[in-house]
């Protein structure tokens, strides 16, 4: 790791006159681009690097060595479901018969691709207990926004213009309120009870005829199943609102519960969490949105429609008049759908049902094995993840941030830290179903070692990491200097 | 222990007002700057903007958090502390010296709704 | 339940349950009311082996037809260097999360910094974010940014020459976000200057969205537009075809405040619509109003140059409902894609790509018109590699005949108008084949 020779930026490896491409000869040289009016052309060429092919390959290969991925090691990042990304997914996503398709190609020539879209959305509908999914949204937050647009469209269709209030638990992820705001809705926060679940008594007075709906994850951000969900759903429905399921925590529900059966009307799924598509350093993801029967008409255009005929079936791309509109240029991140569909075909019905229980077993195992060293604010069974409120012994001054950084030294990724906001020293751990007992045991051992180190050598822990490609970074300098391009760095 | 100055008016959302004649200087308290950590940006209104008691007029950002600035009083902005544009960290150096906006007060009666130094001290538990 | 993705042996499960003080796996769900538990089998197919999965997609792929592509309209069939897809498969990039733990994410952080630098160069703007979903949503975000910046105005103008797939996404976001979108009329393939001047003069506009090159492939002249926008306190937003910015006048040079678009034209495979990569670049002054992630340079505890996510306080995870946008996941890996592409192509490669497209498109346009069956929809308007033609032929019949020969002959954008595109991936022989189809159709009609 961290070969300093390659610590440079690609711009710093550039030399005038080098090139890394090969292009066909211009057989039509009579047509000269210089004929275009000079005042419409750029003054000088962009200062992009000029590098040969091997330099480019080495540069990015060495850069990748400074990264940590799921293939590198255990990645217990809470709420992110860092499960294994099967290789067969990648192979299928790169299938030329699909990658070569232009999204506006004639419908008769893309029937295979449309079948992938349709079958995947129907598979998700079965797993979720809902009627139909759109796969157009590009990510979880985009799905949330789309789902809220469905909610708003439903109310508008009933001339319920005044329904602009979205209820969100105080433990919710920041995207929930942000998505509501982008959608032009107002956020109202409902409190949690000491056990981390929604306070139904706090919810009741919020329910009136201005409520558009309620957004929830279940299990919630603390890994606790909202056992009052049926009552909550009834209250919200009785008030005329819709229930929105944030699919961020869907993984432990596979094989156990379906959001549709819990009373939810609209939901999004993060294919990059629950259905094994790679996170890619922050994307591309995919955020399909599903709805219960009656709400399909509001889903975004375009929609893939299946037509059954005597000699088989075919697909068309259609538009609905009541649709909320368009949230994407075409049909979403298609290659991500190829991966998720491959994963689901590979798992099959006999294996998909074990995903939830095994993920839940792993989380409970880690929780029970560490609760004597780390503060466990909520006891009892968790689902796919749980939250520690820092080290049990706070006297050493070693914080959650320090523990997280020290974990990096031992070759593990850190948990999600300082979220949820309910606890000061939150440390959110989510081991997925793919992790073996041996991996978990070594993680547990390291966590115990760090708890011991916090006692014996607190300063060493506070200055961690020590073995990573770089040491702790100066966030304040970055924010004050605002150097965000090579041009600024260089001059 | 945080610095608290006698004679200022304090809000529960951690702003203070120093009153001089018909004007009030508004900033965040020493306790608030400490909780926020290194301040990297102060989002300020423009001169002549109206501020209303209990409503936000800007925000303070640190590397890890952002906090809305709630105006403790109503009035018209007559000056903003331009030094904070170049050096937002001044808020950390001395939060009381480095006020954020100067407001022409429209209703001095609103000051009665704020805490004095002793009440504020009790409020933050020090 | 022995399966390749589940490492648990029966003994593992027993011993782990013991640690948890439980008897069986179902006990871990004892807190869920029984009536809520899903009790039947999922109605899904049984597991497939890899042999079967491969066969499945081979068969399904047989229902697709790869065509020689003469369509652009927001997705372009460009050459993609072998290096790019090879590096993208590296699992250190592919299987990592958002680079929150900077000490073990310098790979991702550094390429995002390079991406931002390259996009700023390409658009002629000062700063770029770490990517958006696609060109359509990037433009919608720019619309919201303009409205947030104006504070008291909530109207945005959009030129009718912007790609309609972009307009409809902008209009959808606007409808829910409470923004009024008004179109600026089109006049002979370009944005009406008179209509723009009339509408901007009302002093109620937060932003103006135009395109370069526009939907018809025309490079419009925006001389004086930025000044007029700024005079009336509106931001100028330019939606761009990324690849074309290698040669056409940049949003920076036009004086625009925000440059947005899709990076797909920088060698990203068409992939039936995605994933692509949106970009949003702006001025330093507006950096805090910019949505999405930004990477900045700093130093570590040893003083070594490093990169880190910065200005995060603007983002949804901290600002919640007050954030400048709800974007969280972006298209990071695709940002790496275009970063490697631009590294390989450099300024010269990008210019040559545009020259090849220009030559092919102008050759095709000239030959089509020479058949007497087509004429330029907007004669005398300058275009790069995409153009519209009018015809009296039945476009559906023509396209069907071409499809039979394995050619996607452009996109029908009106009853008698066809939008065509040529990139460096089209050979002269392929263009000649398309022209041959016109001649054949013509002779059939004459018989």
Classify the oligomer: heterotrimer
If strands are numbered along the chain, what order do they take across the biggest sheet of chain C? 2-10-9-8-7-3-4
CATH topology of chain B, anyone? OB fold (Dihydrolipoamide Acetyltransferase, E2P)
Specify the helix fraction band of chain C.
25-40%
Q: Any idea what the CATH architecture of the largest domain in chain C is?
A: 3-Layer(aba) Sandwich
Q: Into how many domains do the coordinates of chain C divide?
A: 3
Uncertain segments of chain C are none
**First-last Cα distance of chain B:** 7 Å
Work out the strand percent of chain B.
25-35%
Largest sheet of chain C: 7 strands, mixed
What gross morphology of chain C would you assign?
Answer: globular
Alpha carbon gyration radius of chain B:
13 Å
What's the story with the biggest beta sheet of chain B? 6 strands, antiparallel
- The mean pLDDT of chain C is 95
Which class of secondary structure composition applies to the elements of chain B?
alpha+beta
CATH topological fold name of the largest domain in chain C? Aspartate Aminotransferase, domain 2
Helix and strand content put the structural class of chain C at alpha/beta
Annotation, overall tally of beta strands of chain B:
9
Separation, N- and C-terminal Cα atoms of chain C: 69 Å
Summarize the helices and strands and which ones pair or pack:
The complex is a heterotrimer of chains A (about 500), B (about 130) and C (about 450).
Chain A: H1 53-64, H2 87-93, H3 96-99, H4 111-128, E1 132-134, H5 140-157, E2 165-169, H6 175-182, E3 186-190, H7 200-203, E4 211-216, H8 229-238, E5 242-246, E6 266-268, H9 271-274, E7 289-291, E8 303-309, E9 312-318, H10 334-370, E10 386-389, H11 400-409, E11 416-417, E12 426-429, H12 437-456, H13 458-462, H14 475-481, H15 486-490
Parallel strand pairs in A: 2-3, 2-4, 4-5, 5-6
Antiparallel strand pairs in A: 1-7, 6-7, 8-9, 10-12, 11-12
Chain B: E1 9-10, E2 15-20, E3 23-28, H1 30-36, E4 39-43, E5 50-51, E6 56-62, E7 66-70, E8 75-80, H2 83-86, H3 90-93, E9 101-105, H4 117-123
Antiparallel strand pairs in B: 1-2, 2-3, 3-9, 4-6, 5-8, 6-7, 8-9
Chain C: H1 10-20, H2 50-61, E1 68-69, H3 82-88, H4 91-94, H5 106-123, E2 127-128, H6 135-150, E3 155-159, H7 164-177, E4 180-184, E5 186-187, E6 190-191, H8 193-200, E7 205-212, H9 225-231, E8 235-241, H10 251-254, E9 258-262, E10 278-282, E11 294-299, E12 305-310, H11 316-319, H12 332-370, E13 374-376, E14 386-391, H13 395-404, E15 407-408, E16 411-414, E17 417-421, H14 428-446
Parallel strand pairs in C: 1-15, 3-4, 3-7, 7-8, 8-9
Antiparallel strand pairs in C: 2-10, 5-6, 9-10, 11-12, 13-14, 14-17, 16-17
Helix pairs in contact in C: 3-12, 5-12, 6-7, 12-14
């Amino acid at each position: 790791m961290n070969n300093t020779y390659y610590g440079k930026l690609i711009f710093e490896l550039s030399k005038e006159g080098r090139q890394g491409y090969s292009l066909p000869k211009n057989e039509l040289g009579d047509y000269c681009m210089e004929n275009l009016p000079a005042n419409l052309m750029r003054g000088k060429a962009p200062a992009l690097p000029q590098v040969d092919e091997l330099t480019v390959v080495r540069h990015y290969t060495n850069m990748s060595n400074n990264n940590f991925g799921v293939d590198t090691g255990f990645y217990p990042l809470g709420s992110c479901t860092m499960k294994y990304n099967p290789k067969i997914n990648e192979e299928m996503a790169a299938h030329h018969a699909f990658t070569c398709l232009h999204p506006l190609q004639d419908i008769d020539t893309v029937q295979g691709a449309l079948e992938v879209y349709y079958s995947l959305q129907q598979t998700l509908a079965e797993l979720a207990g809902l009627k139909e999914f759109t796969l157009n949204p590009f990510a979880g937050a985009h799905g949330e926004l789309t789902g809220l647009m469905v909610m708003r469209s439903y109310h508008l269709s009933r001339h319920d213009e005044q329904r602009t209030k979205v209820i969100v638990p105080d433990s919710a992820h920041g995207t929930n309120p942000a998505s509501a705001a982008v959608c032009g809705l107002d956020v109202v926060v409902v409190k949690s009870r000491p056990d981390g679940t929604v306070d139904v008594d706090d919810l009741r007075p919020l329910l009136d005829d201005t409520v558009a709906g309620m957004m929830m994850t279940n299990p919630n951000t603390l890994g606790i199943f909202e056992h009052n969900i049926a009552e909550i759903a009834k209250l919200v429905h009785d008030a005329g609102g819709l229930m929105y399921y944030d699919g961020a925590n869907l993984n432990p529900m596979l094989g156990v519960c379906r959001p549709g059966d819990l009373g939810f009307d609209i939901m999004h799924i993060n294919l990059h969490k629950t259905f094994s598509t790679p996170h890619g350093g922050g994307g591309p993801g995919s955020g399909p949105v599903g709805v219960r029967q009656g709400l399909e008409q509001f889903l975004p255009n375009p929609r893939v429609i299946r037509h059954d005929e005597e000699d088989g079936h075919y697909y068309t791309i259609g538009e609905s008049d009541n649709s909320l509109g368009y949230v994407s240029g075409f049909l979403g991140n298609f290659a991500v759908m190829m991966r998720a569909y491959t994963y689901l075909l590979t798992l099959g019905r006999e294996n998909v049902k074990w995903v939830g229980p095994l993920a839940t077993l792993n989380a409970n195992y880690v929780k029970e094995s560490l609760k004597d060293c780390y503060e466990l604010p909520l006891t009892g069974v968790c689902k796919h993840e749980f939250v520690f409120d820092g080290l049990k012994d706070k006297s050493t001054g070693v914080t959650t941030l320090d523990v997280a950084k020290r974990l990096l030294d031992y070759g593990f990724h850190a948990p999600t830290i300082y979220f949820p906001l309910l606890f000061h020293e939150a440390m959110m751990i989510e081991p997925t179903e793919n992790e073996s007992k041996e991996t978990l045991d070594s993680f547990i051992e390291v966590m115990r070692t760090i708890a011991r180190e916090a006692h014996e050598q607190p300063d060493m822990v506070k200055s961690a990491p020590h073995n990573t490609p770089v040491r702790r970074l100066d966030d304040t300098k970055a924010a004050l200097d605002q150097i965000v391009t090579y041009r600024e760095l260089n001059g | 222990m945080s610095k608290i100055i006698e004679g200022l008016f304090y809000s529960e959302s951690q702003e203070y007002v120093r009153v001089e004649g018909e004007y009030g200087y508004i900033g965040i308290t020493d306790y608030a700057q400490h909780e926020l950590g290194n301040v990297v940006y102060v989002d300020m209104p423009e001169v002549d903007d109206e501020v209303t008691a209990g409503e936000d007029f800007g925000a303070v950002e640190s590397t890890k958090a952002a906090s809305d600035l709630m105006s403790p009083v109503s009035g018209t902005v007559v000056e903003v502390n331009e030094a904070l544009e170049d050096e937002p960290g001044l808020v950390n150096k001395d939060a009381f010296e480095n006020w954020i906006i100067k407001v022409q007060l429209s209703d001095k009666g609103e000051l009665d709704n704020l805490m004095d130094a002793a009440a504020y001290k009790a409020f933050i538990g020090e | 339940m022995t399966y390749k993705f589940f490492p648990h042996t029966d003994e593992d499960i027993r011993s782990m349950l013991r640690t948890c003080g439980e008897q069986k796996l179902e006990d871990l769900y004892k807190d869920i009311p029984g009536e809520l538990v899903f009790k039947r089998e999922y109605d899904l197919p049984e597991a497939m082996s890899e042999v079967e999965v491969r066969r499945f997609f081979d068969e399904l792929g047989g229902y697709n037809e790869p065509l020689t592509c003469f369509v652009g309209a927001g997705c372009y069939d460009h050459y993609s260097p072998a290096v790019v897809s090879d590096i993208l498969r590296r699992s250190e990039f592919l299987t990592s999360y958002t680079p929150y733990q900077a000490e073990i994410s310098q790979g991702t952080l550094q390429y995002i910094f390079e991406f931002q630098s390259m996009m700023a160069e390409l658009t002629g703007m000062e700063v770029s974010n770490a990517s958006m979903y696609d060109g359509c949503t990037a433009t919608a975000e720019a619309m919201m940014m303009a409205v947030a910046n104006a504070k008291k105005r909530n109207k945005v103008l959009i030129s009718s020459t912007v790609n309609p797939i972009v307009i409809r996404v902008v209009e959808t976001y606007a409808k829910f976000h409470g923004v009024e979108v008004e179109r600026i009329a089109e006049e002979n393939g370009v944005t009406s200057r008179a209509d723009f001047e009339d509408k901007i003069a009302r002093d109620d506009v937060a932003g103006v969205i135009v395109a370069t090159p526009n939907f018809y492939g025309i490079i419009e002249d925006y001389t004086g537009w930025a000044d007029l926008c700024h005079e009336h306190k509106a931001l100028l937003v330019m939606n761009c075809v990324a690849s074309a910015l290698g040669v056409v006048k940049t949003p920076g040079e036009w004086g625009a405040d925000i440059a947005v678009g899709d990076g797909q034209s920088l060698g990203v495979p068409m992939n039936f619509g995605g994933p692509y990569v949106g970009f949003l670049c702006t001025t330093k002054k507006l950096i805090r109003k910019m949505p999405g992630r930004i990477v900045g340079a700093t130093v570590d505890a040893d003083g070594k140059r490093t990169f880190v996510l910065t200005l995060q306080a603007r983002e949804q995870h901290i600002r919640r409902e007050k954030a400048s946008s709800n974007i969280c996941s972006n298209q990071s890996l695709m940002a790496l894609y275009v970063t490697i592409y631009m590294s390989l192509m450099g300024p010269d490669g990008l210019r040559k790509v545009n020259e090849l497209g220009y030559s092919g498109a102008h050759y095709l346009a000239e030959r089509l018109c020479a058949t007497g069956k087509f004429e330029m929809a907007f004669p005398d308007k300058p275009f790069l590699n995409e153009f519209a033609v009018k015809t009296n032929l039945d476009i559906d019949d023509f396209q069907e005949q071409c499809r039979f020969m394995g050619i996607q002959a452009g996109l029908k954008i009106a009853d008698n108008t066809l939008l065509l595109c040529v990139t460096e991936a089209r050979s002269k022989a392929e263009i000649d084949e398309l022209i041959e189809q016109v001649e054949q159709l013509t002779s059939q009609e004459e018989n």
